[in-house]
Structures are given as C-alpha cells and as structure tokens.
Design a protein that fits this description.
mainly alpha, globular, MetI-like fold, 205 residues, 12 helices
Length: 205
C-alpha cells in the first residue's frame, strides 16, 4: 500500500512533468534496483537510525523506527518501489496525454481527470506494478535484516525465518520454502495476466 501511495505520484511526476533535477530524481528512485539490498539497509540505518540524519530528531520526539515493524515496512518499500514506478511510468508514457487534454478542455478539474481518465487508462500498468512490488517485498531479505533485524513476532519475515530454520530444522525450512515458492508463483502469474483482461475487469466494475 505504501508503494502505491508513494509510487503513483512519483510516476505521474516523472512521466508528465518537466523540471530541473528530473533525471536526478529518476536515478534516485531507480537506485534500489542496482544497489545490493544490504547497502540499502545500511542507507536506511544511517537515515532513520538513532544517530541517523532523521533518526536523531525522531528519537527526541519519542519515535524509534530502527528494529521495529515500521522498519520492516520502510525497508521493503525502499526495495520494491522502483518496480511500481517503472511499470506505471511506462504505462503513462504509452497512454499519452490526448485524453487528458480533451477532458481538461471540457472543463474537468485536474483531480477529476486523474480519477476518471488517467487512472483507468493505466490501470493494467498500475496493477502489474503493484503485483511486482508485492512479489519483491515477499522475498526481501538483506535490507530488512540490516535495518529491522530479526526479532521474533516483530520484525522476522518469512525469508528470515527460513534462513534461521535452516540451521536448526531443515525440514521446517523446506516446508516454509515451498510455501514461499507457491505464493511467489501465484503472484508472478498474476503480474503476467493479459492487460486486456485487467482492463475489461476494470470496465465491468
């Protein structure tokens, strides 16, 4: 959900706006695609940790993010966000602006244009990007372990549990791995559904 909240505005800005520093913003958004997850976790640690750039101020306000459930969400959003932005930006560029321009000339408010024209046009790209982001979160390991740790009942995700079970109970690790593989196959299958099918479902709703 956080990927959608942050990714949709970012994709719209990158696809529709023109401003100084746009390439830099795009490079920053795409950075997690090329960085090792552990490096991303360290970057988050030095940003939101107790002695980090923002962590010190948050600590004074009584907000601790490092090694918490919030840290898991931030780590997974950091590594998964580019998948949604890339997918949605490509859909926006392919759709063009002609329908939005027509709606604007007819007097539609920008919010109405976004809700009634833009989003329905790129719904397949948004759905595909969301599924791919979820799939990336599902297998996230390095950034989560570095930034959030592995606290049972708080920050331990399924990949971390599999890694730990491998040392103590190989059968349990295999069973959990099979569950993760099954979910991953289902998620990837959803991401490759035909765009026409997704669009038809959106129209029927």
């Amino acid at each position: 959900m956080l990927c959608i909240v942050l990714g949709v505005p970012l994709a719209l800005v990158l696809a529709r706006a023109r401003f100084p520093g746009q390439r830099l913003l795009r490079a920053f958004v795409m950075l997690p695609l090329v960085l090792p997850p552990v490096v991303g976790g360290i970057a988050l640690l030095y940003t939101f940790g107790r002695q980090g750039l923002l962590g010190r101020s948050l600590e004074l306000a009584g907000i601790q993010i490092m090694f918490s459930t919030t840290a898991v969400v931030l780590a997974q959003t950091f590594v998964a966000l580019p998948f949604l932005v890339v997918s949605l930006e490509g859909s926006l560029r392919t759709a063009g602006v002609k329908y939005e321009a027509v709606a604007a000339t007819l007097g539609a408010h920008p919010t109405t244009v976004l809700r009634r024209v833009t989003i329905p046009l790129v719904l397949p790209g948004l759905a595909s990007g969301s599924v791919l982001s979820f799939a990336r979160c599902l297998g996230e390991f390095g950034a989560t372990l570095t930034f959030a740790g592995s606290l049972q009942g708080a920050t331990r995700t399924l990949p971390l549990e599999i890694y730990l079970q491998r040392e103590t109970d190989a059968d349990a690790a295999v069973a959990l791995s099979l569950v993760l593989v099954a979910v991953a196959v289902a998620v990837v299958g959803l991401s490759f559904r035909q765009p026409r099918t997704l669009a038809a479902e959106a129209e029927s709703k």
